[in-house]
Amino acid sequence: MTLDKQIHNARIVSSVAATLISLACGTNYVYSAWAPQFADRLLLSATESNLIGLFGNLGMYSAGVPVGMLVDSRGPRPAVILGSVLLGVGYWPLHTAYNAGHGSVSLMCFFSYLTGLGGCLAFAAAVKTSALNWPHHRGTATAFPLAAFGLSAFFFALVGSIFFPGDPGRFLELLAAGTFGITFIGFFFLRVYPHTHYHAVASGDDSMTDSQQLHRTTSHDSKNSRASRGPRVEPGMSTNTTNQEGTASNPPVIAGSLDSSAVDVEAAVAPKRTPEEVEEAEIDETSSLMSRSTSSSSLPGDVLVQSSVDLDRSHRVDIRGWKLLKNWEFWQLFSIMAILSGIGLMTINNIGNDVTALWKHWDDSIDDKTLVLRQQLHVSILSIGSFAGRLLSGVGSDFLVKIVGASRVWCLVIAAAIFSVAQVCALNITNPHMLGFVSGFSGLGYGFLFGVFPSIVAESFGIHGLSQNWGFMTLSPVLSSNVFNLFYGAIFDAHSIVEPDGSRDCTEGLECYRAAYLVTLGACAVGVVVTLLVIWVQRRDQLKENSKDRAED
Q: Which Gene3D superfamilies match (predicted)?
């Protein structure tokens, strides 16, 4: 087997590892499969139970910017091992608290936060590794970990229902051991395998910088380069340096995780390339995941952008930092994300309570084991719906942009419409056998929202600052989910009866939570209005830009 084939196979193994790691990172969405029984055993109110779930979401969404900086500066692998530890450390105390039947709410919130943070760390590393290993096939390479993340809740709910039916304690043990084990084992196979190395020929003429040719290094040259460079650099780390003029420049060679002789052989046997091809390969390995700008960053948002994004505009526009916070369109999109993601997270975190309320009202003889299985079923439906929504949003937004010539933001109108259907179903369904419409439409709308939103951010504010802009945007679910989930908990508690032993029970069926969905239905209407306003503003600005270009011509 040739060395090229070996490296190709190694990259495939790394991509499989990244996909499996991602499968362990979306377990916050399986919270409803065990939360109601957890609350019953520890005598928690619905509000306290929602608070624990909220801290898991907080860990996942609030740490986007610092996690991206860590992955950029230290490479993907340290983030995976740290995420693995945090997932295990987060879930195991929750498992022991359930078995003991008591625990501090504040401590359980903290450990729930660790599960979200651990998932965020490992997922960011997995996606970046896939993107770096396949620089010319990033869309396909990153689709696998993204899909696995969306199916994480379905996977664990399915395994739990097969091996530990109706046993939340063993299910929490599965989450602790499974998330830690999968990410820990995946760590040993997750590697960035550098492509062929090149170096620039020194030139004393500054005017020749832009057209400077690149040449392949020899084995002797690469050894000298490594010796003079000092410590080895973890593949995938940010390798930008600053020259005497203060401009960013990429180093000539990226240190790899392969043996040095193997890398030299790869360079020796690789076919000759034109200077243009060489330049493209060099930029792919050392620049940002999404652009050829020297400002590199690699938050998950970098690789969530569909390939059909309006690269012309996204490369011309560069709004970030304080300019972003002063931009009116940013706050409009921030509001849309807050409203729609908050609506989705309320159902994701509370579908288990919906199931419990409807089934206990429908059949008061139902046992806890059957309830747990029903909850896991709806978590699976949510997960599959989210996965389908992510795929459909990509196809749908491409159709809107390429065929219809419409704004990609129309996908957010569709997402809001899907959420509206879910809220109407939740307000009217009293038969628990029909509750699948609520979980299905909620998952579909949530996937649709997150499948298209990063591309909208890139087209609106530029691709060069996408990572930090997307990091700011993902703070919105943290704020809105707090409001919607705590409101749901307050409504559910108001209709619950406190038993003499301290346990809570609501047998009123739909009335246990109906008021919460009335509020979210109104929020959907607000989301549609704000989304249409953004479309109108974008259309107006585009017409102004087009007329300005015609005037200049």
A: MFS general substrate transporter like domains (1.20.1250.20)
Compute CA 74 distance to the chain's CA centroid, rounded to the nearest angstrom.
20
Q: Which residue reads 């600052």 in tokens?
A: 465
Q: How far apart are CA 336 and CA 41, in angstroms?
A: 37
Match 């933001």 to its residue by tokens: 409
Side-chain-side CA neighbours of 509 within 13 Å: the count stands at 13
Please name the helix (run of DSSP H) or strand (run of DSSP E) that holds residue 339, with its range, or none: helix 328-362
> Nearest to residue 480, comparing CAs of 379, 305, 342?
342
Give tens-digit pLDDT for 389-447. Answer: 877 876 777 777 777 777 788 888 999 999 999 999 999 999 999 999 999 999 999 98
**What is the rounded distance in angstroms from the CA atom of residue 418 to the CA atom of residue 348?**
15
Torsion angle of alpha carbons 119, 122, 124, 128, nearest 10°? -160
d(CA 35, CA 370): 15
Measured at the CA of 526, the angle between CA 522 and CA 529, to 5 degrees, comes to 140
8 A C-beta contact, residue 37 and residue 368: yes
| Per-residue 3-state assignment (H helix, E strand, C coil) for 369-387 | HHHHHHHHHHHHHHHHHHH
Structure-derived torsion over alpha carbons of residues 253, 138, 447, 18, reported in degrees to the nearest 10: -60
- 309: helix, strand or coil: coil
The model carries a pTM of 0.71
- Give the integer Cα–Cα distance in Å for 305 and 459: 10
Q: Which residue from 39, 118, 56, 62 is spatially nearest to 492, judged by alpha carbons?
A: 39
The tens digit of pLDDT for each residue in 143-193 reads: 688 778 888 989 998 999 899 888 889 999 999 999 999 999 999 999 988
